[in-house]
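Subject: sequence -> structure tokens, single chain

Hey, anyone have a minute? Need the predicted structure for the following. Not urgent.
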Amino acid sequence: MNRIWREDGAALVEFALTSVVLFMTLFGLMAVCTALYSSVFVAEAAREASRYAIVRGSACTGFADCSITSAQLNTYVQNLHYPGINSANLSASASWAGGKAPGQIVVVTVTYNLPLAIPFWPKSGSTIHMGSTSQMAISQ
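Reply:
Had a minute. Here:
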């Protein structure tokens, strides 16, 4: 009769059940923080690329890459090298609606595919598509 009511392994079972919930919450929180970090990076990269493009218009002098193209801007964004950001999943494009003359608007769009890797999550291995657009007037 005494053996039926013993609680020798109860603490181990309780720890196993609660640790699964704890670790899923912890890994989920880390994934959300990574997504927020990546979102801030994408917005900052779009602003930085816009600033880079506005000083390289048709009246540009003094830079080796004056009259920048969309491909050169994409290379610039991929070379920003933020920690934790995979440059292979990053792309940037630019459009000049009225040309590259001073006073015209350049619109830069940066996209990033964040790989989603959460343990015990069924959609692990998929990606989250993030994007940001920035526009500024060309200064030179």
